[in-house]
Amino acid sequence: MDYNKAFDSGLILSGRGNFTYSTNEVLVNGEPDYTYEYLSRIGYPVNQAWGLIAERLFIDQADIDNSPEQFNGFSSSANSYMPGDIKYTDINNDGLVNELDRVPIGKPTVPEIVYGFGISASYEGYDFSIFMQGVARTSFFINPNDISPFVNERNALNVIADNHWSINNPDPNAFWPRLSTYSIANNEQQSTWWQRDGDFLRLKNIEIGYTFPDRESGLFSGLNTRVYFTGLNLLTFSKFDLWDTEMGGNGLGYPPQKVYNIGLQVNF
Q1: Does 225 reside within a domain?
Q2: Is residue 3 part of a domain?
């Protein structure tokens, strides 16, 4: 959608916007007759995620002993779980948390809504434009294996250093479970613990300029000269604030850059 208007005062105004909504539903799927209906992909979008429901972190050993066993308790130290690890919900109440307890969680991993809008204006040599872009109805997962501190001699992100479970800080809702020098399979399960809202609105581009009039004397006399400022990716509005939302779960990847430009255009 576009709008353009020229006013008698000399003001020229333009506006534009786009909006796309795309969804889908699995109608037929080559799958077994599941004992539990929530395991079926039928009726859900192709990009719907399934995962465990995370309740909190285990408080102590007594809490573990009085909770359903998770994944048969694992066998090796790297696959065991301890106080400070994630506690999951036994959805089917069979006394064991495993693959049969994975349910549809969050919104599709591919945005169902993509949109953008902007305005441009010019008046007596001044010009201004701004453009916003965004996505909605999408979720993503933080990949704990990518940001686990100490694993492969990796440093800790500030959010992990400041908000992790420990004996001195046994917070059952801390951002990060107990620290370890090895990966803990129990804590790397796809679950609501790591799922985040992927919606965002970004100030993608802004530009402000001034074109000197032809009658200008001095340095710019007889020249078509314009000075301007542009900015890219200056602001992002999102519920997620650990890193750029558009990066999804790749928190240690290379983020979109904020770019500031000051320029001079001269046409001889």
Answers
A1: no
A2: no
Domain count, the chain: 1
| Residue 218 pLDDT level (bands cut at 50, 70, 90) | low
Closest CA to 118 of 2, 256, 257: 2
Q: What is the pLDDT of residues 180-211, one digit of tens each?
A: 888 889 999 999 999 999 999 999 999 999 99
Other C-beta atoms within 10 Å of 52: how many?
25
**94 domain-assigned:** yes
Within-domain flag for 96: yes
Which H or E run contains 63? helix 61-65
Q: CA–CA separation, 43 vs 31, rounded Å?
A: 13
Tokens, residue 94: 């069979």
Nearest to 39 by CA among 103, 106, 111: 103
Q: What is the pLDDT of residue 230?
A: 97
Pairing between strand 2-6 and 103-105?
Answer: unpaired
Q: Is 159 helix (H, G, I), strand (E, B) or coil?
A: helix
Question: Phi, psi at residue 18, to the nearest 5°?
Answer: -140, 150
Residue-range definition of the domain harbouring residue 179: 47-106+144-193
Mean per-residue pLDDT of the chain: 91
